[in-house]
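Q: What structure does this chain adopt?
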Amino acid sequence: MPEPTGVIHDIGYQRYTGPRLGRRHVFGALYLHGLRTAFGLGRSAKAKIFPWLVVSIVTVVAAGVTAVRSQIGEVVLTYAQFADNMSWLVIFFVAVVAPELVSRDLRSGVLPLYFSRPLPRSDYPLAKLLALATALWLLLGGPQLVMFLGAAFTTGDGMRGVWNELLDLLPGLLYAGLWAVVFASVGLLVASLTGKRAFAAGGIVAVFLMTTPIVGTLSIMPSQAVNELAFLASPSTLVGGVGTWALGDLLVPEGRSGVPIGDFGPVYGVAAVLLVAGCVALLLLRYRKVAAR
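A:
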């Protein structure tokens, strides 16, 4: 009978006996990684160029507005108006970042590895959505803090002036949050439909920009009600309509005209909530189908 020739070598592998962190830590790791990805942190220098260029632009604009205000003593842009005026940059930021967050994983086929962990199917898209929304809020809210600090140090009313300035800042930050949530929901949903980043980016830009002519067409219809509801047709003008209704003079100072929504302000508020809820529901459904493959 021949002697066995196989040999089992002990090369030192041991069972893991440490703590198993579970779902909450996996979600947190996905969120933190997504937030770092949005700003190119931990990636190549090339990946940092666009996001930090956008950050530089909004910061320079905020610093310029603050400097002009300190010289002339008048408010050039309110905090909410700053978010409105920077929204065009947000569109392109979403178009670049959202595909990086989800399209790359779809194309490389790594999602089964994520879902092999104690991670519910809904946590992956929700973590990515939260990361993108946070990045957008920081993009719009950070420069507002620069404006606030400049105004606080130049106010002539002491602590009362600082307090009044803070009361103006908080609605601006909330408005920036609205921009962030709406744009992140729509952008991530579009990006999740394809693994090709170029197609995803083009689709996101098309959704935000190609809906604008629809608003223009509806706003010149003979019906006043149609004119006032026309701004529901585009995510950008929808957010502007909610801002006009909710913020009033903080967004549209006296003597200026805002989005002409008439008495349909509550309709715009409900529409914004439904848009976000619908995008999130479709995003979860999309990843339920991806996970089932």
